[in-house]
Amino acid sequence: MKRLNKLAVSAVALATATACMSSTALADWLEEAAKPLAGTEISGIFLDRPGYRAIIKLLPEFEAKTGIKVNYEIVPYENTREKTVLNFTSQGDLTMALVDLVWIGEFAENGWIDPIENFTSDASITDPNLNLDGFFPLLLNAFGSWGGVTYGLPFDNYSGLLFYNSCMLKDAGFEKPPETWDEVMNVYAPKLTDASKNQYGFALQSLRGETQSADSFMRFLWPFGGSLLNAEFKSNLLSPESQAGLKFRQDLMQYMPPGIVSYDHAEAVNALAQGQVAMITEWSAFYGTLTDPATSKLGDCLAVAPEPAGPAGRLPALGGFSLAVAAQASEEQKKATWLFIQWATSEEIAKSYVEAGGVSGRMAVYEDPAIKSQYKFVEPMVASWQAGVPEFRPRFPSWPGISEVVAEWGSKMMLGEVSAEEGAKQIGTRMEDILTKDGYYDGSKKLLQ
């Protein structure tokens, strides 16, 4: 209820802003809003991924319209949170926060980012067509909201999808992709694997770090009916369902390339792009890489489907980032940053953003017939956002520490250094120690957000 009230207040503010603006301002709201801010410099962190390369391509348009200079540093994902936290705790120069959905609790509770209500209440800097209802509700809630308050707008949006080489599948006698993980293991992968030819049925990005904890480990909990935590925030990794998923992952390794535990996203995507593997489960944002002739040999053989279903149903991975205004910025920088965030996530540039390689969080763009026909990932991605798993990775502030534990012992499981059961015990003990220290069991912190 608290979240609905906050959004209602924002909606009233937006309606008031629209009513007070002249027709000229409505047509050119960005230029008008930016006039007092011309010459202001703002700064943020970008990743070396398609969505950020897409917005960089479009950036000259924003800077020309506004006179605002956008400075950015491209940082590897693995270093982004640490670099951002250090900047905020030392009162650095970042005016904009790139917020992974699992960082939103930490950033909000530490007061490092401002609620968007601080800005939507100001008619002079708010797009009359901001339309918060135009975002997929799952994304706005998971990526940008915490404790019923909206802090950021969805920017780089991911859904886990099955990318596959339709030509390899057809040569193996398959006319359609697998519907279930059971089919992947027992029907498709055996026929698509020939180690003597360095060809494998499946690749699962599993590099130690967030890739291991989120993209590998967590991917095999939910579809099998498992979860990281139970309702009391105690470890659920020894449940029959969680163990089934983790043991399934171990068994599936026989159909993956050697050294799969060292594969990050780039290696998994490249393995499919070069014809080494037939199937991968990867984020929707990598569609552009797989369709680029400079990086992929797939051509018309590239096909996309929803992630396979497990015994608990089809529960695909959910990931992504929001953009939020940094609390440490000056008032002028905050206003300029808010203008950029609105523009970068707007319905107005959503089509250009998608065509440049990004994945918009706006619903309307995926109803465009040209977009639907040109991009094979749209239909399965949109379907996944109707019934995704917002808590695919826990969004509370303790996640970064827990992620390190999961990454360490999840990697040891895959390497055969510990069994799935022993690894789950080790993660559970260490995870509950972190949650105890952080106050989740003595009542000082809420268990659910």
TrEMBL record:
Listed GO CC annotations: periplasmic space
Top-level taxon in the UniProt lineage: Bacteria
Give the UniProt keywords, A-Z: Periplasm, Signal
Q: Name one Pfam family in it.
A: SBP_bac_1
Compartments reported by the entry:
Periplasm
Residues spanning the signal sequence = 1-27
Entry-linked InterPro entries: Bact_solute-bd_prot1, SBP
Query: What is stated as this protein's family in its record?
Result: Belongs to the bacterial solute-binding protein 1 family.
State what protein this is by name.
Answer: Sugar ABC transporter substrate-binding protein
Q: Which organism encodes this protein?
A: Methylobrevis albus
